[in-house]
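Weekly modeling sync, notes
Attendees: AB, CL, MP (scribe)

Item 1: holo prediction request
CL wants a bound-state model with magnesium ion before deciding which constructs to order. AB pointed out that an apo prediction alone won't tell us much about the pocket. Agreed to run with the ligand included and paste results into these notes for async review.

Input as submitted:
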Amino acid sequence: MHPDFPYQLYLVISEESSVHHSLLKVAEMAIEGGVDIIQLREKNLNTSDFIKKAEKLKKLTDRYNIPLIINDNLEVANAVDAFGIHVGNSDTPPSEIQQIWNHNKAIGYSIEYLEQLETEQTKIANHLGISPVYSTSTKTNTVTEWGIEGIKKIRNLTKKPLVAIGRMNASNAAEVIKAGADCIAVVSAICAANDPKEAAKEIKNQIQNHQNENI
Ligand SMILES: Cc1ncc(COP(=O)(O)OP(=O)(O)O)c(N)n1
Ligand SMILES: Cc1nc(C(=O)O)sc1CCOP(=O)(O)O
Ligand SMILES: [Mg+2]
């Protein structure tokens, strides 16, 4: 577990991805199954509706003491006093967020190109998304499919916490951690499961079993 990002299983949730239960029910079941941190990713809501949804989710995450990250929208992140924000190359850059935001808030930043590891934006970010490990139908506008070799390359170039995202599930979580990721981020393997609690538990077990092997 990375000392600066002590979260192993990261749920990225939206209304659209919550197939068999409401978003709040999926989030609660996933927390009960072992999710450590949650990102609210609503790509099609206006800011006012995004804030309303984020407020509801924040009440739940606060009850369980789970940090809430907001995708893309700094106004929403501010409005709900989120733990952090996640941005990519087409969003407000980490340097701008840092100027506006209190320095101890977490900034997640997507790594799509190896060259990004040398940029000022990456230095400012607190943790990095390996974007994506495997291509996924959940987000199709991606650049590099990093794979296991890509994770190893990124791990050799930075000590920052690495969050693996893109088709992550119980079958590949252990090898991704073994390659150097610190945390596994999941949309569909949890949100589209009949039983999000059980799905989260299985992935968490895979992460922890692997870590135990190394002790
Ligand atoms: C943990 C995590 N990693 C990567 C992303 C992708 O962010 P971004 O590249 O900005 O794409 P969108 O999610 O905004 O479509 C993420 N959201 N979370
Ligand atoms: C939100 C997101 N970001 C990605 C990136 O590559 O940056 S992939 C992704 C969606 C991941 O969904 P699933 O777990 O269903 O594959
Ligand atoms: Mg984004």
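Recorded for review: DSSP finds nine helices and eight strands in the chain.
Action items: CL to compare against the apo run; MP to circulate these notes.
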